[in-house]
Amino acid sequence: MNIQTRRMMAADCTSVIAIERASFACPWTLAGLVRKLRPEEKIVNGRVAVHNGRVIGHVVYELSRTRIELLTLAVDPIFRRRGAASLLIGDMTKKLSYERRRVLSLEVAERNLPACQFLRSQGFRWTKTIPHRFCNGESAYRFGLPFGACAMRASTVSLTPTHGENDA
Ligand SMILES: CC(C)(COP(=O)(O)OP(=O)(O)OC[C@H]1O[C@@H](n2cnc3c(N)ncnc32)[C@H](O)[C@@H]1OP(=O)(O)O)[C@@H](O)C(=O)NCCC(=O)NCCS
After folding, report:
1. What's the whole-model pTM score?
2. What are the tens digits of pLDDT across the range 14-39?
3. Ligand 1 centroid, distance to 89 Cα (angstroms)
4. Has residue 168 been placed in a domain?
5. Domain that includes residue 102, residue range
6. Would residue 109 count as lying in a domain?
7. Cβ neighbours of residue 37 closer than 8 Å, sequence gap 6 or more
8. CATH of the domain at 141
9. CA–CA separation, 21 vs 15, rounded Å?
10. In a 3-state reduction of DSSP, which class is residue 101?
11. In total, how many domains does the chain have?
């Protein structure tokens, strides 16, 4: 299946919000997403996975000096298990390696077993549990992928941007 990744644009927000709603009990709202991505908040950015011109997945991330925090990552339910999220994580690990940040991290709801399995498949490890983290009272598992693991991962994949421009 031909999936490409590219930088998220304002025109992608409607698709992204639809995927959020299909994916989470406490999804991002359009207002919240636009606020996060507005031009003056330069450290928040997003990438999307695209199939035949259709946005099928996204990652929104926040950059700090030492880390990349993934604020949300989701794939359209009918396009799951086709490698879209792996491509988006691949973009993030390359970014971590190139820019010498130390860790890629995110939080997932503790009952979100598929997400936990996905993260483990990408080399992430549990770091802590945060009680009552989400709007429905559910606790979160915090996962991290340290730079060393990313460097190993990046060295095992082609660094040629075969699945989209390397523009984030
Ligand atoms: C978690 C999620 C982002 C994975 O996206 P995806 O595009 O389906 O993931 P990939 O196809 O890249 O999966 C890569 C590997 O992760 C593991 N994996 C992914 N989904 C899985 C599931 N439901 N059950 C078990 N393992 C899973 C598998 O090892 C898979 O490889 P395989 O398909 O060759 O067995 C997607 O299920 C999703 O959007 N879930 C709802 C939102 C969410 O929970 N977000 C939290 C993100 S961590």
Report:
1. 0.89
2. 999 999 999 998 899 988 888 877 76
3. 11
4. no
5. 4-163
6. yes
7. 8, 10, 13, 44, 45, 46, 60
8. 3.40.630.30
9. 10
10. coil
11. 1
